[in-house]
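Below is how a single chain appears once it has passed through the pipeline. First comes the sequence as given, then the structure the pipeline wrote out for it. We keep one example in the README because the format questions we get most often are answered faster by looking than by reading.
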Amino acid sequence: MGTNKMIAAGALAGLGLLASAPANAEFEASVGAASEYVFRGVASGSPQVWGGVDWSSDYGVYAGTWVSSTSTQGNEEVDYYVGWGNDMFDVGAIYYAYPSQPSQYESGITEIYGGIGIGHFAGYIWYAPAGVDGPDDDEYAYLDLNLDIPLTQNTSIGAHLGYLEPIGDNANNRDPFPQPGDDPQDADFDLGVSLNVSDFFLALTYLDGSRGGFSTVVGYSWALPIN
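Resulting structure:
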């Protein structure tokens, strides 16, 4: 998902909102590509391409879907989201699906979230009440703090601080984003800086944890209103 606004209640909920969109609703399509996918500070290790469709209304309600060719769980990722927000607050839910994963991973992740934006600052708390694979006791919470500072009309720099807290019986030794064959691991802080020039971006991320290290991501993101 990267820096895109991802949210969720499932495909049927999203499609229901889309089908009943009032006359003052707006649709937007987006596409992009990046040298790597980074989610909650964890890097996929492979490039990605993505696309999505978003719907929003004058009442602040929004919904949409987003598809990526790769994810930190393996192959493709499909997200469904729904929420409500204004210039200061944002709340909602998102479901991350991984269609090609083995059965023990296929249930995906559901997160609920709340955020606040003040000026160039935005802060979010994301919580996964059922963890990565429903029956497992691997819930987690993620604190997401971001600062975006415009330099020119088409250029800005960004700074990011994230902290992931595993919750449950296995909190001390479980990686909330396991991949087949992984040993139990922890993920703690992740830090990032980015340079955004028009639709292009360059980001450097550092993860503090068992998968610690630096990831450099170069990418392009483009959005188009749908009339």
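Confidence is low (pLDDT under 50) at residues 1-23, 180-185.

See the next section for the split statistics.
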